[in-house]
Amino acid sequence: MVSFYKPKKGVNTGSQKHKANKRGKNPGRSAQVLESQTIEIDSWDWQGLGVSRQHPITFVDGALPDENCDVRIFKQQKNVAHATVSQINKPSDLRRAPFCPIAERCGGCQLQHVSAKDALDLRQEALGTLWKKQLGLEDIPWQPALTGEHPAYRRKARLALDARDKNAVRIGFREIRGKQVVDVESCPVLVSPLNSLLPALRELLLAHEGVRHVGHISLLHGDNCSQVTLKMTRSVSQAMLQALTDFGKKHSVNIQLEATDNDFHTLHHVAPVICETEPGLYITPQANDFVQVNRDVNQKMIAQAMDWLSPQTGERIADWFSGLGNFSLSLAKRGARVQAVEGVSEMVQRARQSAREQGIDNIDWLHLDLTKPHVIKQALSAGFDKVLLDPSREGALQVCEALADVNANVKAKAILYVSCNPSTFTRDAKVLLDSGYEMDKVGVLEMFPYTRHLEVMALFSQ
User: Reduced to 3 states, what is the DSSP secondary structure of residue 126?
Assistant: First the structure.
């Protein structure tokens, strides 16, 4: 779930996973346009980019299959170009008007010009084409996709803030292909309890000069309460602190300040935020912890993982990149002895404490760096019947190489791989397949509808 390893405060030897909505390497508004041309769009890739197969192959942001578009090319390589749509000459039957009035400027969503279902179908088709070519799979064992509620699905978000001009303070998300903050007064993809906080929170901040000392705002909604965390760059007035405290009391939400040294100061506390993973089990994330932003899909994902991996009493199961125990708790509940490995020490400590509070004592919580072969070899020496991997976008190449090593005698009979990056998943899956594992089941997870992010779950067995 997270692949950030921090052996002690101030030392960073990895990178924390963010399944939540990252922007890609698209150019800013000032990027040079190399060429303009008219092209036909043949298909989509798995990220939702239109693909024109004329020479060179061109990936077009904002285009749909079967469209004729005028495009602006901003990156040209020998055989590949990257472009954005400037005009749709012949629209696809799939094209839809965005439901958000600022969708064409805000970088929070990239695929509102097509229905979530059509976007998912097209990207699954693109993945199938990719895997047939790169993995040599003739018949892909597709399972039904996991989907959730639309459009209000996000229970966690981070708002950027630009207060350099005190007369035009902007609070919202970064713009598409740029760094400017787009003012967001309401966000239809946020769950209702968070979206309803935005107007009052904006009014409070704009009323105080200390708004210029707020770096960003983190929002988190749990099953029991919501939390607002303000990252502060400097101290603010007592009047502003009191206003924030009163805001927390009025709206019954936790209010926290995060200082530049990452220490937290609580202004108002309702309760620890609880996120249920399945009936009777929960995790308790803090503001900077990784937590799946889509509650419905996360719970369906856990249920499917338990069904596919079928943990049994007495089995030894490795849950690597375990985070706060999103999967570990469910594996342990079914009687398995679980080795949960995570790279963020604070999350390991909170996961251990949470499991103890829930009466779960058959999980061994370890803080290890799973990018180091010798660490992986040592962890695998305990011997496992099954392995569950949920790595960050960087994937789990070193782990898969260790699991595939025919000379190491550590092969698990089943591996469940949950990926938030189909590109690194494809690379890692090839390692497993080449070593003799077979892909028994695979399905896509719509964790982030209306964005380029796509998640995959696959079951491999010997």
Answer: helix
The label of the residue with tokens 């937590």 reads 291
| Residue 185: pLDDT over 90 | yes
Tell me if 24-98 shares its fold with 291-461. no
Closest listed residue to residue 394, CA positions, set 60, 13, 32: 13
Between CA 38 and CA 87 the distance in angstroms is 9
DSSP letter string, 358-420: TT---EEEEE--TT-HHHHHHHHTT--SEEEE---TT--HHHHHHHH-TTTT---SEEEEEES
Quote helix, strand, coil % in the chain, to nearest 5.
Answer: 25, 30, 45
Asked whether the beta carbons of 363 and 328 are under 8 A apart, the reply is yes
Sequence ranges of the domains in the chain: 24-98, 156-268, 291-461
Q: Are 88 and 67 in contact (CB under 8 A)?
A: yes
Cis peptide preceding 56, ω within 30 of 0: yes
What is the rounded distance in angstroms from the CA atom of residue 118 to the CA atom of residue 300? 20
Residue 1: what pLDDT? 54
Chain mean pLDDT for the chain: 92
Per-residue pLDDT for 426 more than 80? Answer: yes
- Look at the chain and count its residues: 462
**Rg, the chain, Cα only:** 23
SS (H, E, C) 239-265: HHHHHHHHHHHHHCEEEEEECCCCCEE
Residues whose CB is less than 8 angstroms from the CB of residue 368 and which lie 6 or more positions away in sequence, other chains included: 5, 341, 342, 343, 375, 379
Rounded to whole angstroms, the Cα distance separating 136 from 155 reads 38
pTM strictly above 0.85 = yes
**pLDDT tens per residue across span 190-232:** 999 999 999 999 999 999 999 999 999 999 999 999 999 999 9
Give the integer Cα–Cα distance in Å for 119 and 291.
24
CATH number attached to the domain at 291-461: 3.40.50.150
Q: Which CATH architecture has domain 156-268?
A: Beta Barrel (2.40)
pLDDT tens column, 403-419: 999 677 777 999 999 99
Is 50 exceeded by the pLDDT of residue 28? Answer: no
Q: Which CATH class is domain 24-98?
A: mainly beta
Residues 270-289: tens digit of each pLDDT? 999 999 999 999 999 999 99
Catalytic center residues:
420
The pLDDT value recorded for residue 5 is: 43
For 101-110, letters b (16+ CB in 10 Å) and e give ebbebbbbbb
User: Are the C-beta atoms of 191 and 122 separated by less than 8 Å?
Assistant: no
User: Do the beta carbons of residue 44 and residue 126 sit within 8 Å?
Assistant: yes
At position 310, the amino acid (one-letter code) is S
